[in-house]
Write a structure and sequence with these properties.
With about 290 residues, the protein is of the alpha/beta class. It has a single domain (about 15-285), classed as Divalent-metal-dependent TIM barrel enzymes (TIM Barrel, Alpha-Beta Barrel). The protein has 9 helices and 12 strands. The chain has helices at about 20-30, 50-60, 80-95, 125-140, 160-170, 180-190, 195-200, 230-245, 260-285, and strands at about 15-20, 35-40, 65-70, 100-105, 105-110, 110-115, 145, 175-180, 205-210, 215-220, 220-225, 250. The strands form 3 sheets. Strands 1-2-3-4-7-8-9-12 form an 8-stranded parallel β-barrel. α2 (about 50-60) links the parallel β2 and β3 (about 65-70). α4 (about 125-140) runs parallel beside α5 (about 160-170) and α8 packs parallel to α9. It starts with 14 loop residues before the first strand and ends with a helix. The mean pLDDT is about 90.
């Protein structure tokens, strides 16, 4: 770790929820005890004022928040947006954001593509993206977590996805946002063993996890949408992740087809139940 860099706050616990404006008012008025922290995209809030800005500030003053970025384009060819990072640094400090994460992908060159594009699984790409992550961490003065992403093509592939991910984590010396749904999606689309991938993840780098729903387009094609309920194979994979790596903070993502808050809280409750069960199993084994 470089001198003077925050090791990254580990003070988020339990279960989290991706915060959407659709249900923000309801949650600000009634605090669900099952939700330990909230996640937002900083790009959606950095320049927000007025009623929404005040509501957001009132929530960050009362609850633990983390940020999941959309636009840094860590794997992109264009120069890293250091002005954005400086602005982001102030935003994270202002709202006492516990942790910042981004996607292991790219989304821009001369302009934004509004999609997450796959980084080639090559040694050259490892060096490129790791250097950009290190620079981002230096500017922010904190460790960041990178997310294993869903992808639908692997251009220029020279190594497996898990080897690429682990090489970037080691070279950049950063943390991991472990997306369980993305492992399932990719294992179906690219025909690999999801549990073997999960077992090869470095447990010590897991900052927190994501779970979400997806759309089954065909038997061999799943689209990561965050727009449906979590399916049984993803629940089983999450339970296996806790078995292999211990319980880590885990957040429910739901970006489209958003149901009533009560339904989201039921899925939050299921995450919490898996965490409790895994913790109890570990305690019994130690006894």
């Amino acid at each position: 770790m470089r001198h003077g860099m925050d090791a990254g706050p580990r003070s988020i616990h339990g279960t989290g929820l991706g915060l959407r404006r659709d249900f923000m008012g309801a949650l600000s008025a009634t605090t669900p005890p099952s939700v330990g922290f909230y996640e937002v995209a900083p790009e959606n809030w950095m320049n927000t004022g007025g009623r929404w800005g005040k509501l957001f500030r009132s929530m960050t003053e009362r609850f633990d928040f983390i940020c999941h970025g959309l636009s840094l384009s860590l794997g992109g060819p264009a120069p890293l947006d250091e002005r954005f990072l400086e602005d982001l640094k102030g935003f994270l400090k202002q709202h006492r954001i516990k942790l910042y994460s981004e996607h292991l992908s790219y989304c821009s060159d001369d302009g934004h593509l509004y999609d997450l594009m796959p980084i080639p699984f090559t040694a050259e790409a490892v060096r490129h993206v790791a250097a950009r992550i290190r620079r981002a961490q230096d500017i922010l003065e904190r460790r960041i977590a990178i997310e294993n992403v869903s992808y639908y093509a692997a251009p220029g592939r020279e190594m497996d996805e898990i080897d690429f991910l682990n090489a970037v984590l080691a070279e950049a010396d950063c943390d991991l946002l472990l997306d369980i749904n993305n492992i399932h999606v990719n294992s179906v689309n690219h025909r690999y063993d999801a549990e073997a991938f999960l077992a090869a993840v470095p447990a010590e780098r897991i900052a927190y996890g994501h779970v979400a729903g997806h759309h089954v387009e065909a038997e061999d094609l799943i689209i990561d949408t965050h727009g449906a309920d979590i399916v049984d194979p993803v629940w089983r994979l999450l339970a296996r992740a806790y078995e292999l790596h211990g319980v880590f903070p885990t957040l429910l993502e739901r970006d489209f087809n958003i149901p009533p808050v009560s339904e989201l809280l039921r899925e939050i409750g299921r995450i919490g139940a898996l965490q409790a069960s895994s913790t109890q199993s570990r305690q019994r084994r130690r006894a």
